[in-house]
Every structure is written in structure tokens, then in C-alpha cells.
Write a structure and sequence with these properties.
Strand order of the largest sheet: 2-3-1-4-6-5
Distance between the termini: 19 Å
CATH topology of the largest domain: Alpha-Beta Plaits
Strand content: 35-45%
Largest sheet: 6 strands, antiparallel
Radius of gyration: 16 Å
Shape: globular
Order of helices and strands: EHEEHEHEEHH
Number of domains: 2
CATH class of the largest domain: Alpha Beta
CATH architecture of the largest domain: 2-Layer Sandwich
Number of strands: 6
Length: 146
């Protein structure tokens, strides 16, 4: 139900993003989704790959500090209110949404978003109680890699 995300701090300068992306590319590790947030001095690269353990080892060997977090991937109806239903459900369970970003996947009128909750297990339980099932990582990777 949870998907592992890797996060790296990068200097906010030209070429900083290329280094980790090239490392992953040479190792044949495909980035399935990613997000970049920045300030004037640094950026945070967050991404999902199928073999996160291999990616983590590779990046750490090259000097990166890598943080692993649990994300919850959820199919969201691509219509007005689709996201609102999910947010209302987790808010009622008193779970905080820290951030989210999308996958480049859309099937049967639904998109897929990755959510970072402060308590992913409680979020999953509340969503399932409401009939919303997060996507299992195995199923997600199959869809993304076709």
C-alpha cells in the first residue's frame, strides 16, 4: 500500500539535478515520478523508482544524503471534487497532508497522485474505511512501466 520515495538535498545551481539523474540513468533505474522544491540556496529532489534500495545505495556511494519516506499512491477521479473527497477523508481522521505530486499515469478517468501524510497507516485505514484503496506498489509499477 505504501510506496518508497527517495529525497535528496541539492545545491540550487546549474547542473545539480543532472548528477543524480545521470547516476540513476547509467544504472538503468527509471524515475517513475518526481518533484522538486527549491529555495535560493538548495532544492529537494523527491522521486520514486522501482528498486529504491539500489538507487539509495548508488546515490549514497556517490556522496548524497538520501532520506527514505513512505508515500501513499491513490487513484483520484479526474473530475471536480475527486481530490476533495480524499482530503476530507484524511482530515476527518486528523491526518496531516505534508505534500503531494502526480504520476504521469491516467487510466479510466482517474489520475494517480502520491501523498505524503504524517501518519500514512492512519491515512490508509481512513481511506479504506471510506472505500478508497491506495494502489499497491507492485500494481503501480506494472502500470507505469507497462
Amino acid at each position: 500500500m505504501k510506496v518508497k520515495q527517495l529525497s535528496l538535498f541539492l545545491e540550487n545551481k546549474p547542473g545539480a539535478l543532472s548528477r543524480p539523474v545521470k547516476l540513476l540513468s547509467r544504472a538503468k533505474l527509471n524515475i517513475l515520478t518526481m518533484s522538486i522544491a527549491d529555495t535560493q540556496q538548495f532544492g529537494i529532489l523527491r522521486f520514486v523508482v522501482r528498486d529504491w534500495e539500489k538507487a539509495k545505495r548508488l546515490l549514497e556511494r556517490d556522496g548524497f544524503v538520501v532520506k527514505v519516506s513512505d508515500m501513499v499512491a491513490i487513484e483520484v477521479a479526474d473530475k471536480p471534487g475527486g481530490l476533495a473527497d480524499i482530503l476530507v477523508t484524511v482530515e476527518k481522521a486528523r491526518v496531516n497532508l505534508e505534500y503531494m505530486y502526480g504520476f504521469t499515469l491516467k487510466t479510466e478517468g482517474k489520475g494517480v497522485l502520491a501523498f505524503r501524510f504524517d501518519d500514512p497507516d492512519r491515512a490508509i485505514a481512513a481511506l479504506q474505511k471510506k472505500g478508497i484503496s491506495p494502489i499497491k506498489s507492485v500494481d503501480l509499477f506494472k502500470r507505469l512501466e507497462g
